[in-house]
Design goal:
Blueprint (H helix, E strand, L loop, with lengths): L2 E7 L3 H16 L2 E3 L8 E6 L4 H12 L2 H6 L4 E6 H4 L3 H8 L5 E3 L7 H11 L3 E3 L20 E5 L1 E2 L10 H5 L3 E2 L2 H14 L3 E5 L16 H9 L6 E5 L8 H9 L6 E3 L7 H6 L6 H14 L4 E8 L6 H14 L3 E6 L17 H24 L5 E10 L4 E5 L5 E4 L9 E10 L2 E6 H4 L8
Parallel strand pairs: 1-2, 1-3, 3-4, 4-5, 5-6, 7-10, 10-11, 12-13, 13-14, 17-19
Antiparallel strand pairs: 8-9, 15-16, 15-18, 16-17, 18-19
Helix pairs in contact: 9-10, 13-14
This protein binds S-adenosyl-L-homocysteine, iron/sulfur cluster (SF4) and FE3-S4 cluster.
S-adenosyl-L-homocysteine binds next to strand 13.
Length: 449
Amino acid sequence: MEKKYRIVTYGCQMNVHESEKIAGLLHGMGYRETKEDAEADIIVFNTCCIRENAENHAFGNIGALKKLKRRKPGLIVAVGGCMTQEKGKAELLREKFPFIDIIFGALNLERLPELIERRLKERRKVVEVREKEGEIVEGEEPFRTSYPNAWVNIMYGCNNFCSYCVVPYVRGRERSRKPEHILAEVKKLVAEGYKEITLLGQNVDSYGSDGTTGMRFAELLDAVASVEGKFRLRFMTSHPKDFGKEVIDVMEKHRKICRLVHLPVQSGSDRILKAMNRRYTSGKYLEEVEMLKSRFPEAEVTTDIIVGFPGETEEDYLATESLVKAADFASAFTFVYSPRAGTKAAEMEDKVPPEVQKDRIVRLVELVNSLTRRKSEAYVGRTVEILCEDYDEKKGLYLGRDEFGRMGYFASETNRIGDFVKLKIERANGISLFGVPAEKAGGASPVTD
Ligand code: SAH
Ligand code: SF4
Ligand code: F3S
């Protein structure tokens, strides 16, 4: 009988893509995917530790497997990802959940097949977490699950040490993939029919800054955008301390680079930005937004914001509100600060009480939603090009995103997944848009060509 795997993923896009790599390795061993725990021969948790609730979520779901594992002792439970890279976490996992069979690291996920073989042969628990980053492993074939979108790593790790952030500790130092590997992967994806490529790195602007690639990010972006074919190109994440003219110039050269930049600001208060070790001011941030929007009037910016960082006063928080209004974000991910062991901020005094954090996050979410809603309403009556990426069973509608990441729904008799569809927007509901394909609506002229 066919062996089945199930992968449970937490965390960022990087992890989602790494789950595709894990899936590729499991396919290579003859496993096929199932969405049901009960059908699985192996369940892999690809964990995240960016905030405490991400960890609690994983702990809860791993713990919930205890019964199934008792019923089905042959089931292999494997835990990998960022959490296992944290100091002391692998031991804690073993203690808390003795039924875990394999613990592996985010820095050595390519070892999983061998660890599985070992577990099957020796019937002993296997723990192998690589502590320090090694050479980049090339040649893995991810099992992609997100057609027509594809993610491509351009670099791994982070050197920025923002004072709240655990990523540099669990993902190691920055290292960049060679341009020839990236370009070969993108060309292959475009030839296979992928329509949207997102270049991934914790801080894409630092690409090649160690001098090992012979190219900086702007040059790489230029080279990738020069690959022939109709596809959209995105990149994530930019860092305000580095983002600027070079990249914007390349964007101007290539229409296939989406006019949407994800530029995490974290706070609008210069005092807090300093304590966060972000190395830019709110003034510099707004200048960058202005530079982008003056070059492309349609451009949009999305962001990440943390409230309740140690020492954040009401005045600091209000500075964040002012910045949100001035930057006029298309949307924002908003987080309550979560102390992470080993980071500088975890040692800082003057913690913000939970009730104050809660009050600020509620106010901020309301502000961000009001911007997003207003932008959605402005879509009504316009025609936009979306890339159809899925079918929503519940709604009975196809869906896709426009260049700015806005979700548009529409009805269709035929499967449109992977098509660029011109959609005349008739209605907006919060962040979602509903429309009719323009060919049906009488061929209104597209605005995004
Ligand atoms: N490399 C990206 C994203 C890192 S993680 C960047 O530099 O922005 C994604 C987001 O999680 C961050 O932008 C930040 O807003 C949030 N985050 C990171 N650590 C956090 C913490 N300890 N508490 C709350 N939010 C955090
Ligand atoms: Fe974390 Fe800062 Fe690196 Fe982003 S740039 S991963 S927030 S340390
Ligand atoms: Fe991503 Fe979470 Fe790791 S945000 S890099 S999966 S800690």
